[in-house]
Amino acid sequence: MRKMSVEFKGTKDGVIIYCLDGFDFNRIIDELAERLKQRASFFADAEVRVNVGARLLSGSEKEMLAATIRENSEMRLAAIENGDEKAFNATIERQKKDKRKAGGQREDRSLIIKRTLRSGQIIRFAGSVVVFGDINPGAEVVAEGDVIVFGTVRGTVHAGAAGNRDASVVALRLVPAQLRIADMFSRAPDGEPLLPAVPEYAYISEDGIVIASINTRAGA
Amino acid sequence: MGEVLVITSGKGGVGKTTTVANLGTGLAIEGKKVALIDADIGLRNLDVVMGLENRIVYDLVDVVEGRCRLKQALIRDKRFENLYLLPAAQTRDKNAVSPDQMKKLCEELKEEFDFVLVDCPAGIEQGFRNAIAGADRALIVTTPEVSAVRDADRIIGLLEAAELSNPRLIINRIRPEMVRRGDMMDIDDILEILAIELLGIIPDDERIIVSTNRGEPVVSAINGSMSAQAYRNISKRLLGQEVPMLNIYKNRTLLGKIKKIIGFGG
Q: Which of A129, B72, B181, B191 is 20 to 30 A from B165 via CA?
């Protein structure tokens, strides 16, 4: 008989659905949908909490869970939580260690462009883009990773285009018409543009998009 | 075997037609056999600027549609017998000609002429595509204005995509006083963005307006103006001669020189 990936437990506070460890998330979704459909009337409109064990779910994965419950039953989803505190914390620690060990590295596909990008030219890439040349006004680079320019950026640059807020834009001279990282936009203040004297990089901090000289980088 | 040069800019009104007229005349003065093609079908101007508008019998579209032979459509210049004009049609538009037809036409002219200058219309659509189809090299005309430079940059990108690499730049209508005051982009600012070889600079000159209205390119006038000198220099550079850039910042007319010697300011 097939092993169950999902367990239902009734408590005085309502139903808890446990997503057992070691099972693929999609398998869990499928099984959950099936089991909910079978027992819909039994659960009626009870309140339900989903315990995903030691998993760290992304926003879309959480939405998938909520949708599965919504579409296959009348239960009300109260919370998605991590059970087994110890396992959850262990996952977080391991992720932190990986980041520290890698020293702020990211493995990415990259596109290297060895020319100046002219007005009207647009480069879209699912990875990081390196330009040996300028990005002229009217040109655009849209990258899911970082954008690194050995030249002057006067056009529009979008790093982290798929939502990665860790992405950054680095240039020998950063004077973009518009700069975007993930879902944040920024432009130079109105008035005479100040030509920077040093190479700079742009990244997202709590204050929004920040531009700093690369000499003051403290390994972010 | 001659060379086909397309004179283009992207932006309208920066001086392409005037440049074609004056460079063509300048090259003819240097003894070369030159053909000018007006590729601005529907809005033809090259004939007016050359003063040949009442000599048009056949035009570019007539040739391409086979109503006449190329030789019948070419108009010999009033002043220089080694300079010819192939005018555009005024009653048609840019869709009347295809890039392939232009290419064939340019190839035919190349065999007989040392230089074929194509006056490209403004824009980046069919007219532009037609004009560059038969070209060996491109000359880009811009003025020292942000919008013109932006458009020139776009054009350079399109030319690179069409494998017309290494275009050369002509900066037209520079006003030295404005540059000195910081109110106008200077040559280095423009080259920073466009980053192509500079062929020449032409100062803003009232006499150009007079000349285009009269149908007499400045280069052919007897009293030399600075713009005429600039165009002559560019013509010589096109022939491989090394000519120093015109110093437009020192506007020393003869009177100015005398004043200086005597000690009157200037």
A: A129
